[in-house]
Design brief:
Layout (H helix, E strand, L loop, with lengths): L1 H30 L31 E8 L2 E6 L11 E8 L2 E8 L10 E8 L2 E6 L10 E8 L2 E2 L1
Antiparallel strand pairs: 1-2, 2-3, 3-4, 5-6, 6-7, 7-8
């Protein structure tokens, strides 16, 4: 009987220790989202430079659904743009010069269709842009990716 009581006591002690350990881990996870020290150096000096907007943006274009940056070039997807039909999509190229971002180009599929959602995802590496169209054809759902290359100020 003594052995059973001792065993029961040890089990209860282990369970109590485990509960405290789990609570401690939960607190650490929650606390890890809050800086443990005041921000110093570069991370404390973020300021908004400029709000980028599409030159022809309208409601439901979803401008900014995807973004990519390479050097002084930004590529911004707008999969809801309607130039080639509802949600045909587009992507915008902005160039940074001095302290200003300026729209350089609007990229569209030459044979774009309704529901292509071109611009749903974008990636940029210097003068090469990769743009995803999650639907790519009316209700197909297969999707495609398109590569654009910049020469001077022209993207093809």
């Amino acid at each position: 009987m003594k052995k059973k009581l001792i065993g029961l006591f040890i089990c209860m002690l282990l369970i109590a220790t485990a509960i405290l350990a789990v609570k401690s881990l939960q607190n650490n996870v929650i606390d890890s989202t809050v800086p443990s020290h005041p921000l110093t150096g570069l991370e404390a000096n973020w300021t908004k430079m400029q709000k980028l907007l599409a030159s022809d943006g309208t409601t439901d274009d979803e401008f900014g659904i995807s973004v990519s940056l390479s050097g002084n070039i930004a590529l911004i997807g707008a999969d809801g743009d309607d130039d080639n039909g509802n949600y045909s999509g587009s992507a915008y190229v902005f160039i940074h010069t001095g302290t200003t971002w300026t729209q350089q180009a609007k990229l569209l599929l030459s044979y774009g269709e309704t529901e292509d959602e071109f611009g749903y995802s974008v990636s940029l590496d210097r003068d090469t842009a990769l743009i995803g169209a999650s639907e790519s054809g009316i209700y197909t759902g297969r999707g495609s990716a398109y590569v654009f290359i910049r020469t001077g100020t022209t993207w093809t």
